[in-house]
Amino acid sequence: MSAIEIQNRLPVASPAEVRRALMRLFAADKGRAVQILVLYVLAAALSVAVPVLLGHVVDGIRAGWTVGRINLVCGLIVVCVAVQFVLSRLGRRAGYRFGERAAARLREGVVGRVLGLPLDRVEQAGRGDLGTRTASDVNTVADLLRYSGPTIATAFIEVIALYVATFAVDPLLGLCSLLTLPLLLLTARRYLRRAGEMFRGERAAMSEAAETLTASGTGARTVAALALQQERRSMGYRRAETMYEWFMRVLGLQNEFFLALLWLNRIQLVLVIAAAGWWALQGGMSLGTAVAAITLTVRIANPTNTVMAQLNGFQQGTAALARIEGVNRVATARREAVPNGTEVRLDAVTFGYDGGPDVLHGLNLHPAPGERLAVVGPSGAGKSTIARLLAGIDRPRTGSATFGGVPVCDIGVEELRRHVVLVTQEHYVFAATLRDNLMLAAPEAGDALLEAALRRVDAEWALTEGLDTMLGDEHRRLSTAEAQQIALARVVVADPDVVILDEATAGIDPARAGKVESALAAALEGRTVITIAHQLQAARSADRIAVVEAGRIAEEGTHEDLLAANGVYAGLWRAWQGNRARHFAG
Amino acid sequence: MHPIPPPTARRLLVDHARPHARRIAIGVLMYLSAGALSMSQLWMLGRIIDEGIIARDARAFAFWLALMLFAVIVQPLFWSVGFRLFVGAEAENQRAMLRRLTDHLNTAATGVRGRISAGELVNLSSEDTRKAAGSVSEIGFFFNNFAMFIVGSVLVWSIHPLLGIVVIAGSALTALVIGPLLGRLQRRQADYRKMIGDLTAHAADIVGGLRVLRGIGGDLLFADRYRERSAALQRTGYRVANSISWIHALQYSLPIVFVAAITWTGALLAADRTITIGGLASAFSFATVFIAVSGGLIGTASVLVASRVAAGRIARFLAIETDVDDGGTVRGAGGELSDPDTGLVVPPGGLTVVVTAETACALEACERLARYRDSEAAWGTKPLSAYALDEVRERIMLLTDEDHLFAGTLRTTLRAEPNEALAAIETACAHDVYTGLGATLEAHVAEGGRNLSGGQRQRLRLARALAAGPEVLLAVEPTSAVDSHTESLIAERVAATRAMKSTLVVTTSPLWLARADRVAWMAEGKVHATGTHAELVADPAYRTLTSHGAD
Q1: What residues 436-455 of chain B have any CB closer than 8 A to a CB of chain A?
Q2: Quick check: A259 and B68 CB within 8 A?
C-alpha cells in the first residue's frame, strides 16, 4: 500500500472523542440509563444477599436456632432470589432495548453523514474503508451496545456489590479480598495492550488467506491456462502457515492471561480463608461471618471472569467506534453558490491528483449551451479528469471550472445535480426495484415516464421484465451493457442541462452502442452533451470535437475541419478508417 | 494428485482430529486432572472449616490450607498444559483444512467456476475453517467441564446424598430448561440476524452507489429507506430483547435458585447435625461453581453444532469435481483447430479475426477450442479431447477480460525471462504499466490488478499471454479498453511478432481487421462467411458492423 493511500484514509477519532461519543450515546437516553442502573444495582444487591444470609444461618445453627427459624431465613433467601430474578429480567430487557436504540441512532447517524461526505474525499479514501465503517464497524459497536455492554455492566456491578458485601461483613476481610485486585488489573492491562495487535494480526492473516484462496477460485481458468497450480499451492500453504503462526501467538497470550486469572481467583480465596480462619481461631470473628466472607469470595470469580472475557470485545467495540466517529471528522465544505444560466466552461485549468504532477496544463474548454461536444484522445491524456472538473467532483488547482458563472465546486450538490450529471463507465445498480433504480432524480416520476426513458436507451429487456423487478446480485444480475442502459435511463429521467458521458457506452455491444447513442442524443435534444471517448465512433456525429493530448487541447473543430487540418485527429481517424480507405482506394 | 472421495461433515471433522489423537488424549488427562483439582479445593474448604476452625485445631487448619494452596497453584498448570495441547491441535487443524482447500482448488480446477461464489470462498477459508477446526478444542473444554461436574457431584454426594441429588437434579434442570430455550432463541434470532444482514447490505449499497446517489439524486430517498428499515430492525430487536432477557435472566438466576435450594437443604441437614458446617459451606461453594460448569456444557453443545454446519459447507465444496475430462493421451501433432458447433476454423499460422455482433457466441466457441468446455472440437485430425489436457493448456491459450491477475510482481505475473517479459510489454503497448510501477520488473501488482486502471489491466493480461508464447492464442476483445491509437499499434505488433504462430482475435475493430490474414464473420451463432476483410466489406451488414456506424 502506498503512502498516499494511507494518507488518504478517512480519519480515526481519538480516545477522548470516543469517550465523548459514548457519553453522547448515554446522554441521549439519560432517564432510561439511570433506570437501568438502578435495576442492575438492586438485582446485584439481592443476589449478594444469598451468601450473607448463609452466614447468618451458620451462626444461627451454632446458636441453636429452631427449624422454623432456619426455614424462615432460608425462605427469605428464596424470596431474595425470586425478586432478584424479576429485577434481573426487567433490567436486562431495558438494557438490551437501550442498546438497540443506541445502535439505531448510531447507524442512522453514520449513514446520514456518509451521504453528506464530499465525493472527492470518499474516492480518495476508497469505498472499502467507508464500507467497513458503515457495515462491520457499525455491527461491532451495535453488538457491544446490545449484549456485551449490558452483560459487562451487570457483571461489573455484581463484582462491586460482592466487594461491598465482603466489606460490610468484615472490613478487614474486605481489604484482604482486595489484595489480588492490583495484580488482576495489571494482568488485564498487559493483556489488553497486546490483545488488540494480536487479534488484528490474526484477522489480517485470515483475510489474506481468504483473499488468496478466493483468487485461486475466481482465477481458476487463469491457473489452468498458465499452469500456476504449484505456485497457487505454495502461496496457499504460505498463507496457512502465517495464519498458524498468528494463531499460536494468540494462544500464547490467552494461555498466559487465563493462567493468571485462574491463579488470582483462587489465591484470593486462599487469602480470605487464611485470614478469616486465623481470626476465627483467635476468637475474633464468628464462624458465620467467616463462612459468609469465604462464600462471597467464591462467588467473585464468576462475574470477574465474565468482565475479563468481554474486555477484548469491549476494546474492539471502542476501536470500531473510533473509526465510525472518524467519519464525523471529515470536513464538509459549504457549497452555497447559485448558478446563473446553463453555460459550463473550463478556463486555464491546471489539475493534478494527490499532490502529484499536473495532468492538465492550462486547459480551456467552452462547450456552448445545447452543443454536442466530443472529447477524444489517447488513454491517460486527461479526458476523465476534464469530466470530473466539469461535474464538480474535483476542484482545479488554478484556473476555473464554472457553471452558470460560479465555480462548479461551490454549487450545492442538490442544486448542481439538477443541472449537471456525469455518467461514467462505472455504473452502479442498487439492490432495489428497477423503479427505484430509475427514479433517483425524480422520486415523483410516474411509470410512464420511466418506461419512456427505458425505451430511449433501447432497454427492451427492462420493459419486458417490468418496473417491479428486483435488481442486484441476489435477484436479477445485470450484464455490463444492461447496467449501462440503466445508468443512461437515469439521466433521461433526470433531464439535466448538461450531461457528461465518460465512456458511458463502452460496455455495450458495438452493434447496439450506435443505436443507443443516437436514441440518447434524441432524448437529450437541446441539452449540452459532452461525450468523452477513447474510440472515435462517438466523435463524428458531434457538433464539435476537442482532441486532448497530454493535458492540453491539441485541436478543436468539426469533424471536417479537423480532417482538413490534417493533424492528430486526422491521423487517428485514418488509423481507424485506414482499411476502409484502402478498400475504396483499391 | 490422488482423488480423495468427498467426506461427510462428520467424517471431515474426525479425519482432521485423528492426527492429533495422542495430543488430545494427553490433553483430556490434563483437563480431567485440572477439573478434579479445582473441585477438590472446594471440598478442602469444608475440611478447613470443620477440622481447623470449628475444631479449633491450628495444625489441621494449617495443613488443609497448605494442601489447598498447593492445589490452587498446581491446578492452573494442568489446565494450561491441556489448553496448549488442545488449541495447538486446533491451530494445526485449521492449517490442515486451509491446505486441503488450497489443494482442492487445484484438483477441481475450472470446475469451481460458477459452482461457488467469491463470497462463499471467503467464508469457507475464514469463518468455516475456523469453526470446523474449533471443534477439537471445544471437545477439550467439554472434558474439563465434565470432570468438574462428575468430581463435584461425587464430592457433594459424599457430604450428603440428598445434597448430591439436589446438585445433579439442579444441573440437569438448568441444562434441560435453558438448553432448549437457547435453541429456540437461536432460531428466532435467525430472522433478526437476517434483518441485520439486510440492513448492512443496504448500507453497503449506499456506499457503493454513493457517486450515483450524490451525482444524480436519490440520496434522500435512500436515507429515508435506510431509516425506515433501521426502525423496523429496532422494533424486531425490542421483541428479541423481550424473550432474550427472560432467557438470560433464567440462565443467570436458575443457578442461584439452586444455590438457595442447596443452602436450605444443607442448613436443615446441618441443624440436624447430619452434615457439618464445613460441609454446608462446601456444598454452597460447589453450587456456586456449578453455575459456570453448566453454562460451559451448554456452550459446548452450540459450538459443536456450528462446527458441524461449517464442516458440512467445507465438505460440499470438496465434493466439487473438475468440469473438463482429463482422459486424453495424445501429445505432439496439432494442425487446424475447428469448432463444428459454429463452423469456426483456426488454421495454423497468421492472424484470424472473428467479427460478430454477438461476442458471447464467439467467446463460447473460443472456450470450446481452448477446451474449457467439452465439445466435438478437433485439432488437426484428432478430437481435441483426445489430447492430454496439460498439452492443450500449454499450446492453446484463451485470453479474455475474465482472466485474473494474481498478486505478485511484474516478473512473476509475466512468468518469462526479463528480456522476453520486456518484449511482451512492448508488443502489448504496456510500457506505461511498467514505468508507472517504477520501471522495474519487481514492481508490485495487487490482487486482481487493483493498483492498475482497467486499460492497463487489459494490456498486462495481453502481455502475459504473449510472453507465454502459445502456439495458438485465442483472444476475445483484447483491446476493448484501449484508445484507437494504441490499439492500432498493438494490432500491428501482435501480427508481426506472432506471424509464425496462430492468433485469433474476436473484435469488430477496423484496426485489427487491417492486419488480419483472414476474417470469419459470425452471425446468429454460426460462421456466416469467411475471407479477407477487403472481400467481406462489400456486404453492407458487415460494413455497418465494422465501421462503428461512422458511415
Answers
A1: 447-448, 453-455
A2: no
Nearest CA in chain A to B259: A50
Write down the CATH number for the domain with range B337-405+464-546: 3.40.50.300
Q: Which residues contact B130 (CB under 8 A, 6 or more apart)?
A: A206, B94, B310
Q: Where in chain B is the domain with CATH 3.40.50.300?
A: 337-405+464-546
Q: Which residue has the cell 488430545?
A: B24
Distances (CA, A) of A437 to A430, A441, A456, A469, B450: 6, 10, 16, 10, 27
pLDDT tens, residue by residue, A138-160:
888 888 888 888 889 999 999 99
Closest CA to A356 of A130, A549, A548, A551: A551
**Cα of A80 to nearest chain B Cα, Å:** 10
C-alpha cell at B190: 435467525
**Which of residues 131 through 190 in chain B touch A, CB cutoff 8 A?**
none
The torsion angles phi and psi of B339, rounded to 5 degrees, stand at: -120, 100
Question: Are B173 and B254 contacting, i.e. CB atoms less than 8 angstroms apart?
Answer: yes
What local confidence, expressed as pLDDT, does residue A580 receive?
A: 45
Could you give the residue range(s) of every CATH 1.20.1560.10 domain in chain B?
A: 1-159+302-322
Nearest-neighbour CA in chain B from A531: distance (Å): 15
Cell numbers 465444496 correspond to: B317
pTM reported for the whole predicted model:
0.81
Angle between helices B219-271 and B161-208 (to 10 degrees): 170
Q: Over the stretch A96-134, which tens digit does the pLDDT of each residue have?
A: 999 999 999 999 999 888 888 877 777 666 666 777 788
Q: Where are the alpha helices (DSSP H) in A404-523?
A: 413-419, 434-438, 447-456, 460-465, 480-494, 510-523
Q: Distance (Å) from the C-alpha of residue A475 to the closest C-alpha of chain B?
A: 13
The complex's ipTM works out to 0.87
| Architecture of the structural domain at B1-159+302-322 | Up-down Bundle (1.20)
- Residue B476's pLDDT is 93
Alpha-carbon distance A369 to A429, whole Å?
30
Q: Which one of B68, B257, B403 has the shortest CB-CB distance to A270?
A: B68
B385/chain A closest Cα distance in angstroms: 16
As a whole number of angstroms, the distance between CA A224 and CA A546 comes to 45
Q: Are residues A262 and B79, on separate chains, in Cβ contact within 8 Å?
A: yes
Is the CB of A583 less than 8 angstroms away from the CB of B404? no
Any residues with CB less than 8 A from the CB of B290 and at least 6 apart, and which?
Answer: B149, B152, B167, B170, B171, B255, B258
Q: What is the DSSP letter of A433?
A: B
CA end-to-end distance (rounded Å), chain A: 55
Domains of chain A with CATH codes:
11-170+316-332 (1.20.1560.10), 344-580 (3.40.50.300)
Is B244 in Cβ contact with A96 (below 8 Å)? yes
pLDDT score at A359 = 84
Q: Touching check for B199 and chain A: CB below 8 Å?
A: yes
Distance from CA of B503 to the nearest CA of A (A): 16
pLDDT digits (tens, 9 = 90+) for A383-437: 888 998 998 888 899 999 999 999 998 988 888 888 999 888 777 888 889 998 9
Q: Tell me whether B124 touches chain A (CB under 8 Å).
A: yes
Q: Which residue of A has its CA nearest to B390?
A: A227
CB contact under 8 A, B249 and A92: yes
